[in-house]
Every structure is written in structure tokens, then in C-alpha cells.
Design goal:
alpha/beta; five-stranded parallel beta sheet; 22 helices; 22 strands
Length: 616
Amino acid sequence: MNLYTLVNGISVQEKQPSPAPVKEYDVIVAGLGTAGCYAALTAARRGLRVLGIERETYVGGTGTGGSVFCYYYGTTGGMYEEIDAKVKAFCSANNVYGPEAFKYLVEKECLNGTVDIAYGAAVVGVYRKGHTVGGVRFRDDTGMHDAVAPYVIDATANGDVAAMAGCAFQSGRASDGEPQPFSSAPRFLRRKADGSVTITWSNFDAGYTDPLDPDDFSDSIAHANALHLPASFNEGNALVFVSPIIGLRESRLIVGERTVRFSDLIHGNVEKDPVLFVYSNFDSHSKDWAFEGDMIKDWMLAGSLWGRTVYIPIPLDSFLPKGWKGILVACRAMAVDHEMATAVRMRKEMQRAGEIAATAISLSLKEHIDVRQVPHATLIAELKKTGCYDPAAQYKPNEWPRDGKTIYEALATNKPGEAVWGAYLLGNEMKRELRQWLTDGDEHRRRNSALALGLLGDRAALPVLREIVSSRDDYQPETGRSNNQKRIYGALHLLGKFADADSVADIAALLKERAEVFQDCSHALMALLTIGRKKKEVRAAVADTVTKVLSDASFQHTLVMKVSSSGEGTPPVSEDMTQYMRIIAAKELDSWGTAHSLSCVIGSIPLTHRNRRLLA
């Protein structure tokens, strides 16, 4: 086998001879975090010899060192429920803080079983022969070590092992490559009304970072830690510590044997042979919606469906890098697209992902077959024994309004989003009725019908979509529990998709009129640039408006992070968007061959890591 490592983000074969592996295992688990600790536990319970490699000095990852010791959505069932019950009982009996109890109990079971743990260790290379992974090289405080195994589980969250091996992956959204914002969770002592003191935390969004860029990542950690320092401390508000692990929500996403895509899910094309069920809303922590892809803007803006929960079936093929053997990815780096990654990262589901990967490997080794050859029914039967697979508790079909009467009534309510989407999914059979409703006496029904018709690509919606913009329709529905979007944003997005040249003058007027309001400004900007990309005849007018607005000295924008105040005295965290929008516009105008002065303005102000990445 040859040794491969990462050099400037690229998998490269090591030239020098390497020492012989020192120990053999049945499975190597890289990363003992949210998924990895359950992979190691499961493999040990099934009698496998396990090597667990963890860069920190404890297990649990985000749930322990990251201080996110709670659940957000997700479904019940699996080994984690047993461990949770043990942790709860231990905390009650010993007055111990939950994450510390988890570290102790899970580590104890691993060490009492067949797991060798290498703490403070990092995988620095991957052994492979062709497209088969057979081991790793890792470094800890005692030096360099080699280990081999028929299978490696990449539970590093960032897909580091898969990347070292040379597996294909994608990263970030299409427009700029940016992943989700990251969090930095502090722990506070807070005095309650009854005088007692409790430890509390905040899931604090600290900004954007590229975890694959060492300089940016290091700067982000230092910046995030400093954000938690209030002007003063008092008995009711004392910072205990800042979590040593920052909460990365997205990084690499492998290209798998099957990649689960958001567009397939919301159009009803779900996997037929799942091993894992995910339950969540589209939990994007970004708020710069205008720069997301069309599918997300369809969902977020036209439907205002951020809070709509969905069930997502994931097949074992999404754990498997395409064309590779000997490696499974059991973490948020599994094969989903950027849009789906907002949901397929929840703690309950990742814990089950570790259990599923180890169970599949144990069956593979027992029967002396490749993990791809393990019969689906056999794997499911094993997973059912712990409740890890239980469709009755973990899955329901994603249902939408399916009849005209229900849709008609809902389009006139303050929660029209599901009716808009239901009409869209019904397709051509709804077009005739939607066109009729464009002249309905109820304004909400008229305009929401135009959004649904716009999603269907029917140009009959254009007059009403233009009307929504010209009337500055700031109506905000209440479809979801939060992050509902103004109706005008959906109209702007759809007018851009239609490349509606007739709306350029009005959108340009909106951009000038509301240049100081980030959401209005960013959505109007992207609508104009999208129309200009498709319609050459309006490019001069678009370029003139965009350049004048964005070059003005008064043009300044910051975007407040979704969750960004950790306690008394700590201000909300903001991301500067001024230069970002100028760069987005300048790159688009450059692609048209249109002269502009934005480059001079951009060059006169220092750029952030994020802006430099966008320019690259």
C-alpha cells in the first residue's frame, strides 16, 4: 500500500519509504466526536478490534467539548438513548455536569471493551492500494504511528480522511463556496429568580470561516473567543468558559455512491432503501439568502418555508465515497448537497450514523463480503434491535396540500407557504386555477397565487409579480415559527428567474430607494444581476444603477448573525457585507465585459478572509 497525505488541500502520494504498520485492527475510527464515539462503541460491542483516533483529550465532540449538549429536532431510537439514560442517572447521583458525565461513561465503556484510544492524535496520512483504503498514519505526543484495518470510518466531521485518500468532495454553496456560519458556545453562571445559580449556554453564531484555510480558521477561533467578553461581570452573569471546539456546521461533503439532494427531497423523490432517517427543518444559519442558489430561494423566499420540518431518508450509499472501498464516512461530511447539509448534521442523527456505519462493517467482516454487498434487509434487522432503525417512530412522508379547495383557502391566510408549495408540486394541473385566482378579490390570494405560478415558470404570473414589487409589498407571512420572508423578496427572486426585462426600471428604483436596508438591497441587487446575465439589452442600465449605488460612500452594510448575543453586555455579532456585495457585482459585470468603477472602491478598503476567497 502507498501512503497519501494532504498538501495544500490535494491528496499526494508520499515519496519516502514508510515504516511497517505497528498494529492491525478490524476497524479504525478517525474522530471520536458525535458520530465517531458511537461508531467505536458499536464496533466494540460487536466484538471488533477498534482503534479510535481523537485530536482532543475526550470523546463526544460538539456535544461535549462544543457544549451543545442538547438536541434540536432529530428522531428517537438507537444506542444513544441507552447512553443518555446512563448519563442522566449518573448526573443525578453524583451532581455532575452532563457533558463531563458523558465523556467519563463513554470513554470507560470503550476502554473496558476492545477499543484502543489515541488522544491528542491526528491522522496525517492514509494507506491505500488503488481505490481501496487499508489504514492510516497518525501522530500523537509519542510520535508517528501506523495502523491497518479492512475498514476506516471517517468521523472527522470535515471528511479529512476521505480527502487525504483522494476521494472527491464538494464544499459550500454554488455562488461563492461559502459554508454555513460557525458557532462558538460559551458557558455562563446565571442566578435565577429564586436565588439559585445554574450553568447556561448560548449557541452563539460567531461568523463565517473556511475550516480548510489554516489562517482563516485560526483567526476565526481567536476572534470568536474574544466576542464573549462582556463589559463587566456580576454575580448574575459570570463567564465560566468558552467551549474549546467551535461549532462548524459545514465543510467538505463527499461525492458518494448516492448523493441525497434537497431538490429531490422537496419534489418527493426520496430514497427507497434508507438506513438512516433525518428529521429537521432547513436549519440554515445564513441570513444572506439572496446569494443562495435558486432552489433555496424558491423554498425560502417564494414559500417562506425555513421552519417547515421534513423527513429525510438516507441510504448506506451516502456513507460510501463514490468508487472507493475500505472507507465509510459517518459524519456531516456524508454525501448530501449544500442545501441538504443544513439538516443532515443534527446530533441525534449523527450519533445513529456512527452506529449504522459500525454495524454495516461488522456484518461485512462476519460474512467476508464488501460492505456494499451486505443485504439491506440483514442490516436493517440488526439496526432494529437497538431501535436505530424504526420507520414508525422516525419517518413520515412529507405531505403537502393536494387539492384545489384546500390550496385556495390557505392562499388567503397568514400561513400560505405550504399551499404555495403544494400548488407548485401539483404542477400543470394547478396552472388553470392559479391563473384564475390572479384576479381574485382577495389580495393575499392573488399575490400568493402569483408566487406559486411563478415557481411553475408560468409567465402569466409576471404582472402580479411586478405589482408586488411596484407596491413595495412588505407583507411577511407567518408560515413558519421564524425566518419568514417578505413577499417582495419572493417576487424579486422570481422576476430574476424569468429574466423579466420589463421589471428592471422598478427594481432599480427599489435598489436606490432601499439601498440602506440589507435584505431589500441584496435581493434587488441579485434580481438585477440575474436579469442582466440573461438579457444583454438591459445590461447597460443595470450596470449603471448597480455601480452608482454600490460605489456611493454612504453604502454600508452589516448583517447581524442569526444567534449572536451570549449574555448581558455582549453585543450582537455582525458580518460586514459592504465589500462582499461590491465584489459579487463586480465579478458579474466583469463577466459581461461591462466597464465599471467598483474595482477601485474594492481595492481601497482592506478585505476580510471571506472577501479574498470571493475574489480568488
